[in-house]
Amino acid sequence: KKTQAAISSFFTKK
Amino acid sequence: ARLLHGSIFAKVIEGLRELVNEATWECSGNGITLQAMDSSHVALVSLVMRSEGFESYRCDRNMSLGISLVSMSKVLKTMGKDDSLTIRVNDDSDSIIIAMESQNQDKFADYELRLMDLDSEHLGIPDTDYSCAIKMPSSEFSRICRDMSIMGDSVLICTTKEGVKFSAKGDLGQGSIRLVQTTNIEKEEEAVIIEMKEAVALTFAVRYLSMFCKAAPLSPQVGLSLSEDTPLMCEFKIAEMGHVRFYLAPKIED
Question: B238, B12 in Cβ contact below 8 A?
Fold first, then answer.
């Protein structure tokens, strides 16, 4: 089963 | 900011407004940029419209404008297809002025939209050296997303050196579409071009891909860039001016 990742976990918060 | 073809701006708004309802438009001397995530933080859109792409552009000081894309879309629906469009904000005003001029200068429409107070969180998008970069007709990609959404809510994108394969499965069964890399490229715009450093196989929610395709009228081609465990980048260029880039987080094994 696959779960949807969050985009914010890939990009750095500035 | 003035555009001879206001329709370009309308296409940008139509390309964004399903994914994000409101966003902060950053205006500076270099032009206009926007970055926003959808409400569930699964996708992110980054817009760049460089100042030299406008017929005329002036920005005396940097401004962050909170704009409802839904309201902007409604106002732009009143624009004639050949109208020119001028957007202006006076220094201390709390609204944005949208002026449309008919081509033969006999009809002038003016709207004023109230600005919103949005807290804009800005994410750093790292420069990625993608394993795979696909260029294909944007209409073709829109069609594939629509067709795959019939079979399921996720689409697996696999690339090999021969081509790219989209597949979806669900209660009805499964389906797949394979595109072969174009060999004899007569018209660049209709070609499927794949640059592959290494094969990738990634799963994405098709409803986001379909929302990205709302921006397809901006460009005859779409760029898809993929790397394992990395958000997909889906890019529509805005001729002579910039681009709309969508990023979508993949679905990953539990």
Answer: yes
Using DSSP's 3-state secondary structure scheme, residue B70 falls into helix
Phi, psi of B165 (to 5 degrees): -125, 130
B74-126 pLDDT per residue, tens: 999 999 999 999 999 998 889 999 999 999 999 999 999 999 999 877 999 99
In 3-state terms, what secondary structure has residue B204? strand
Angle between helices B6-16 and B69-76 (to 10 degrees): 140
Interface contacts A/B by beta carbons within 8 Å: 57
Distance (Å, whole) CA B254 – CA B232 = 19
* Rounded distance between C-alpha atoms, residue B224 and residue B142, angstroms: 12
Calculate ∠ Cα B249-B238-B251, nearest 5°.
Answer: 10
Contacts of residue B251 in chain A, CB cutoff 8 Å? 2-5
Taking the CA of residue A4 and the nearest CA in chain B, the distance in Å comes to 4
Write out chain B residues lying below 8 Å of A12, CB-based: 123-124, 126
CA distance B45 to B228: 20
Q: Which two tokens stand for residue B21?
A: 């309802």
Q: Work out the minimum CA distance from A14 to partner chain B, whole angstroms.
A: 5
The answer for residues whose C-beta is within 8 angstroms of residue B225's C-beta and 6 or more apart is: B128, B130, B132, B133, B134, B232, B233, B235
